[in-house]
Amino acid sequence: MRLAFYAPMKAPDHPVPSGDRSIARALLSALRLVGTEVDLASRLRSREGKGDPARQREIEEAAKEEVARLVNAQEAGAWQAWITYHNYYKAPDLIGRPVAKALGIPYVQIESTRARKRLTGPWAGFARQAEAAADAAQLIFYFTQRDAETLQRDAPEEQRLVHLRPFLDRADLPMQSELSGPMLSVGMMREGDKLASYRIIAETLDEMSDLDWRLDIAGDGPPRGQVEALMQPFGDRVRFLGMLDAERLQRAYRKASLLLWPGVNEALGMVYLEAQSAGVPVVAQDRPGMQELLAPAAYPAIAEGAQGLARMARAYLRNAALRQEAGRAARAHVQAHHLLPAAARTLAEGLARIGITP
User: Fold this and answer.
1) Is 132 exposed, middle or buried (0-12, 13-18, 19+ CB in 10 A)?
2) Which of 245, 252, 280, 300 has the fewest CB atoms within 10 Å, measured from its CB?
3) What global pTM score does this model have?
4) In the CATH scheme, what architecture does the domain 2-169+340-352 have?
5) Matching Pfam families, A to Z (predicted)?
């Protein structure tokens, strides 16, 4: 069986790393583990983040050309289904629906988000396209219960919805962390939610002046100067590692005593799975969507702010046995629910429900 795969937000071979790219790559691995051949059908990026209707129309015209190219391509006849990852109002799938219809093949989505409140305003046109694409899908795999609520509410009568837990692009667990090194924070540096998490981290560190802690920060981006200014009061207790590739990041996890990342408005936050797979306890706020990823624990509420995070981090730093117990629980959680074999089983079972079998 041969499938077409498309990620309108960012192609899996895009040069800039991100959580979205990591998930797209993991999906390709899981689909191939099911026993299918997968083609990257298009690299056209439909994302328009500023709410510019003129730019949106330009992208729509480019998408029409891409649809014509794919429908007319000889190799397109080999596809048994089309799968789109991450359809939403800022990056709608403008290609998959018309191509699948023209070729007479099933149309499937993974992580599609409904946002009907966006049907007015600067993204109205794109929001209509995203809703139409979601309506056309015979099957949608969703990552979070929060997405499931609107998908279930607005689903056409014959549409199938299947819960696919977020997962890492690996079949087994990495080496267990020693839990003896500095705390670790991992996050891209950009304005908005990421910078907000870094601000909360600085506040959390200030709440832990009674402890002899150290923190490594893995990440980079345009606001790095602002992040460095936030951490300047702590001197050499905070070390900036820059952007790390997968191998060097794994080495950082193998030493880290805990992962400190508040998770402001994180849709998924794959760093939580990476850390937990290495047995690193997570200190994060109890935010919507986080429950999809984190091993059960008493995470502090958002209203507790930095004080709640500091309380949790302090408990782990003071008690090695507690760190080890939490790390073992985190590893077991990832192994049971968030690795390639579990994802491949879910994908195979879901695809079979609409008659797609390798």
Assistant:
1) middle
2) 245
3) 0.88
4) 3-Layer(aba) Sandwich (3.40)
5) Glyco_trans_1_4
